[in-house]
């Protein structure tokens, strides 16, 4: 069984920084693209940053230049460094992974989600 577990959320003042982590565990053979999403109160979940297995990245305009996505393939871990945080960054942040899991004789490719971690930017 595959699990994605986020950590690193919390309360931070405007202009501050946080680093989110997302650790994938279970019978994982390989991880393709990974991403960070967020959902603010009353809004739909949105993709804010993505990274391929080769390290290519993409960002939503709202976070470009402030957030950095990275991954450690050896540790099956995804990171999001968030700098110059703004109150509008307040949301629940979710990680997402497109990965291959299962057994040697039965591999499954699927999309997995973490449980979310709260980020609140407020003075």
Q: What is the number of strand segments?
A: 11
Secondary-structure content class:
mainly beta
Give the strand content: over 45%
Mean pLDDT: 96
Largest sheet: 7 strands, mixed
Rg measurement, Å: 15 Å
Distance between the termini: 40 Å
Range of helix content: under 10%
Q: Please give the count of helices.
A: 0
**N-to-C SSE series?**
EEEEEEEEEEE
Shape: elongated
Low-confidence stretches are none
Characterise this structure.
With 123 residues, this protein is mostly beta strands. The chain has strands spanning 3-7, 10-12, 18-25, 28-39, 46-51, 57-59, 67-72, 77-82, 91-103, 106-113, 117-121. Strands 2, 4, 5, 6, 9, 10 and 11 form a seven-stranded mixed sheet that branches. A four-stranded antiparallel sheet has the order 1-3-8-7, with no helix packed on it. The radius of gyration is 15 Å and the shape is elongated. The relative contact order is 0.32.
SSE topology sketch:
Layout: E1 3-7, E2 10-12, E3 18-25, E4 28-39, E5 46-51, E6 57-59, E7 67-72, E8 77-82, E9 91-103, E10 106-113, E11 117-121
Parallel strand pairs: 2-11
Antiparallel strand pairs: 1-3, 3-8, 4-5, 4-9, 5-6, 7-8, 9-10, 9-11
